[in-house]
Amino acid sequence: MAGTADGYLLVYAGAQFLERLQIDPRYWLYLNRNFESRFKSLVGAAHLVRSASEQLGRRWSHGIRDCERYLSPPITS
Questions:
Q1: For the chain, N or C: smaller number of CB within 10 Å?
Q2: DSSP secondary-structure letter at 3?
Q3: Taking Cα atoms as reference points, which of 16, 11, 26 lies closest to residue 69?
Q4: Is the pTM of this model over 0.85?
Q5: Are 49 and 64 in contact (CB under 8 A)?
Q6: For residues 1 and 45, what is the distance between their CA atoms, to the nearest angstrom?
Q7: Cβ(44)–Cβ(68) under 8 Å?
């Protein structure tokens, strides 16, 4: 399918989607292959995971470093 025009559009649309989410395509591929081994509970942008953990009364969340690395938008000044 990747060799067809439809496949190209699918890949292009996927790249645009990841760009809007500010997720590196290499990280997306890695996460798709290793998702369950990297995250055991909450998943998302690190600041949102911290907020949710606080609301749930948790002091920490397994996988927060990976959330920072793979799912949080870059810091802009």
A1: C
A2: T
A3: 26
A4: no
A5: yes
A6: 32
A7: no
